[in-house]
Amino acid sequence: MQPRSPTPALLALSLGYFTFGTSSLAVVGLSAPISSGLHVPAAQVGLLVSVFALTFAVAAPLAPVVLARVPRKRALLLGLGVMAIGGLLAAIAPSYGFLCGARVIGALGGAVFGPASSAAGSLIVPEERRPQALATVFGGMTAAAVLGVPLSSFLGNSLGWRWALTGVAVLTVLALVLVALLLPEVEAGERPTARAYRLVLGTPGTVPTVLTTLFFMAAQFTVYGVAGAYIAARFGSPPSTVALVLLAFGVVGVIGNASGARTYERFGGRATITTTQVGLGAAFLALALVPHALPAALAVFAFWAFFSQLYQAPQQARLVALLPDQRGIVLALNASALNIGVSLGSLLGSTALPWAGARLLSAIGLVPLALAVVAHAVSVRRIRTAEPDPAPDPAQGAGQPADGTATALRTS
Predict the structure, then answer these.
(1) Which residues contact 376 (CB under 8 A, 6 or more apart)?
(2) pLDDT band at residue 400, thresholds of 50, 70 and 90?
(3) What SS3 class is residue 247?
(4) Class for domain 7-386+404-411, per CATH?
(5) pTM for this one?
(6) Where are the domains of the chain?
(7) pLDDT at 180 over 50
(8) Does the N-terminal or the C-terminal CB of the chain have fewer CB atoms within 10 Å?
(9) What pLDDT is recorded for position 404?
């Protein structure tokens, strides 16, 4: 009897990530209708991204500890259930404060589901397929940018933002059903303890690698966290055009995400992450310089999207390779850092857009990007410094490094 293919389970987890990503980012394209419906400034709607992301950032590292005795599959289903409840409450929110509370509930569910889904995806495939599995699962987040955000923007401006959020909640329930049916039972791994967290944080390279994610996402969300208002102000675009630009961002982002595993395998983690940082820097400089025209917006957002999504799976694979026995904890810490970055970037963008103006906003985003470059350089140096020199293998001959050394250098 043929063993069951892991692909359907990976796709179910990817759908869960899609609903998680859309739940967190849908308000990016719904700033105008939510602003009108709840009578708050459009820039204040951008803070809803910060509320979701900051809640996730605090809860994600705690979730493996609180749910240590809960089987991994059951924890995934719990996370999706809480996300669905938060989404439905958001859809019926009578006020901005109520909507913020609903976002907190949805983020708590995401904090349970997100890191656990990446860990589960990496455990149901052979080790050599781990980068592809992580890219498939995180591809749901990319698809959220491709379809979720622009579709939410379209539905919000045509049917109303409440129907858009209701649709996301219904998809979350569908993901819950598919994960329940398709995902096999997954080993729980070691129970997280304070000692395990100290081990993870004390491993050379872990902290700067996680900080790279934080600053990289803060840079992106300085602009993307207020994308609807930014595109309208920078390029004079109506709501329908905002949705088109976000769709272009998402479509090219899929290509970037799909390229992540292959790029990682060919060039290694260090070079891949460096490339994404250079690409993001070039995109932000272009946003500050290009003319006030729709073709320029489409071209630069598409260029940015490729490097944005090229980053995620290789960075997760670096962390899993660094601490394979503690992947649940290290992926939770990375997800937490990612969402702190989202929160800080959205807060920076919401604050800076009114006083600095749209043209200068991307230049402001270069500040956290510079910090990401420094953090990445430190992570590479610390990982290399911590690697012991392996004993020479006679079968390889003089001057040939052992396979483990080559792998470590490529993944660092």
Answers:
(1) 208, 209, 212, 270, 273, 274, 277
(2) very low
(3) helix
(4) mainly alpha
(5) 0.73
(6) 7-386+404-411
(7) yes
(8) N
(9) 36
